[in-house]
Structures are given as C-alpha cells and as structure tokens.
Write a structure and sequence with these properties.
Blueprint: E1 4-5, E2 8-9, H1 18-28, E3 33-38, E4 44-49, H2 50-66, E5 73-77, H3 82-94, E6 97-101, H4 104-108, E7 114-118, E8 124-127
Parallel strand pairs: 5-6
Antiparallel strand pairs: 1-2, 3-4, 5-7, 7-8
C-alpha cells in the first residue's frame, strides 16, 4: 500500500532500484513534473516530466550499452542541471557505474561536457 506524506508519494517496498521507481512513475504519471532545476537556487530554469527524463535517460543508456560499457564505470563531467540528471539515470539504466565529478572548466564551458569511460589505467576516454 502506498501512502501520501506531505504530497510526496512514498516508495513501495516492492521496488528493487531507483530505476524501478522512475519506470513506474513514467508509466503511471508520464506528464507529471519530476524534477526542476533552479539556476540560482530560486529561479526556475528547466523542468523534466517523468516521461522526458525516462526518454533522455534511455537514449543515453542505449549509447552506453552500444559501447559495451555495462558493468564498467563512467565519469560524469557536467555542471549542475538536468543534463547531469539524464546522464546519471542513463548510467543506471545501462548498468554503468556513474562517477559524478565536477571540474570548474566544465561549468564555465558547457560545450566541453564529457561522458567518459574510465579505463583500468585510470585514463579518460571521451565518448561523444
């Protein structure tokens, strides 16, 4: 049974992962706002519905799986925002271990965002 607490739906114990929660919320309430990014902590910059987050995350997961990265690690070099969230969930969908990191250059120059596989030698291999 699911309870509503402070208008936030409690997660049933039947879910094994956060991906299960996202999939279910996408099926049950695809047009409901899932996340909002506040640019300065107050100003609304962008929002995702459950459907939008699921669609973007699955697209990223597909690319990661095509590269054979399931079970491997990927470093996420994104400034704060919804692109980071899509990449994080994309890793979860693909079975890739997401390693969040933030470098100041990437915050200043978003065109240099990378999703890179970490090789055994700890070198970075950028993927586009």
């Amino acid at each position: 049974m699911t309870k509503i607490i402070n208008s936030i739906q409690e997660i049933p114990q039947s879910y094994a992962t956060v991906v299960d929660v996202l999939r279910d919320r996408t099926l049950q309430t695809p047009d409901k706002q899932a996340f909002t990014f506040l640019e300065d902590g107050e100003t609304k910059e962008a929002t995702f519905t459950y459907y939008e987050l699921d669609r973007r995350s699955r697209a990223i997961a597909s690319q990661l799986q095509a590269l054979g990265l399931s079970g491997k690690r990927a470093i996420l070099l994104y400034p704060p925002g919804l692109d980071y969230l899509s990449a994080f969930f994309g890793c979860l969908y693909a079975g890739v271990v997401a390693v969040p990191a933030r470098l100041k250059i990437y915050a200043k120059y978003p065109e240099y965002r990378l999703l890179a596989h970490i090789h055994k030698q700890a070198s970075l291999s950028p993927q586009q």
